[in-house]
Amino acid sequence: MPRFAYFDPHPARAVTTQSPLHQFAATASGGESSVVLRENAFLDHLILRGESEVLIASVQAVLGLALPTEPQRLVMGEAGSLQWLSPDEWLLIVAAGEGFRVQRELREALGSAHFSIVDVSGGQTLLELDGACAVDVLMKSTAYDVDPRAFPVGRGVTSVFAKATAVIRRVDEQRWELVIRRSFADYCLRWLLDAGEEYGIDYRPAELGATISGAAVVDTETMS
After folding, report:
1. Percentage of the chain exceeding pLDDT 90
2. Which of 39, 82, 22 is nearest to 178 (CA)?
3. Do 125 and 39 touch, CB atoms closer than 8 A?
4. In which element (H, E) is residue 54 found?
5. Minimal CA–CA distance to 200: which of 126, 128, 127, 131?
6. What pLDDT sits at residue 149?
7. From CA 178, how far away is CA 72, in angstroms rounded?
């Protein structure tokens, strides 16, 4: 039977962590702002794969979230957010330091079922756009139709963003999220600040010097 190893990526001792955009300071438009841009960097991102029929009960039991089975659906709750990416693939985002615990509990609940859980936290970050003109900034940035009449709250899509790609999510009436690759973070932030200049845009970076402490654990499981 195949074996796999997984580990808690957070070190045993608290250490200072840097967001992908740590080099950018907060900025203000200097006037009335209609868009606020934030980086929510210190979150755990997991890719969950498997047949929906296999995953539904375990996801509900561990996370208290209903697995979205319809294309482009996004569900949110106290445990985090879960987004449909493809017929057998979901993006799960939880609070910093929670990813390892969630992995363990999901693996235990799923037992010998055929599934995959991959921690991609180090390769992604999340930007949030909030405000009356947030959608106008997005309309200048992506070819996808983000008109609120066509893009309801609770939808998430992967699309071209500027000359990169992003997962675009509408989480409430005026608040949107962009899940972007770490390597494109600098470019996407600069693009958004430029696109939002005419509306008045404020940027609020992730809190620098954030620390996460936990026990670094290596665990090996047997899968049938």
Report:
1. 77
2. 39
3. yes
4. helix 52-63
5. 131
6. 95
7. 14
Task: Give the largest Cα separation in the chain, rounded.
Answer: 63
DSSP letter, residue 121:
G
Sign of the CA dihedral running 117, 97, 104, 79: negative
d(CA 8, CA 200): 41
- Helix, strand, or coil (residue 173): coil
The rounded distance, in Å, linking the Cα atoms of 21 and 142 is 21
Taking residues 172-183, report their average pLDDT: 96
pTM above 0.70?
yes
Residue 78, token pair as written in the block? 């106290």
Distances (CA, A) of 53 to 91, 115, 157, 173: 17, 11, 22, 31
b vs e for 77-106, b when ≥16 Cβ sit within 10 Å of the residue's Cβ?
eebbbbbbbeeeebbbbbebbbbbebbbeb
Per-residue pLDDT of 188-209, as tens digits, reads 999 999 999 999 999 999 875 4
Tokens of 22: 């740590």
Strands 201-204 and 35-40: parallel
Report residue 155: phi and psi, to 5°: -110, 150
The CA distance from 205 to 76, in Å, is 23
Mind listing the pLDDT tens digit for each residue in 52-85? Answer: 999 999 999 999 999 999 999 999 999 999 999 9
Residue 73's region, left for phi above 0, alpha for psi from -120 to 50, else beta, is beta
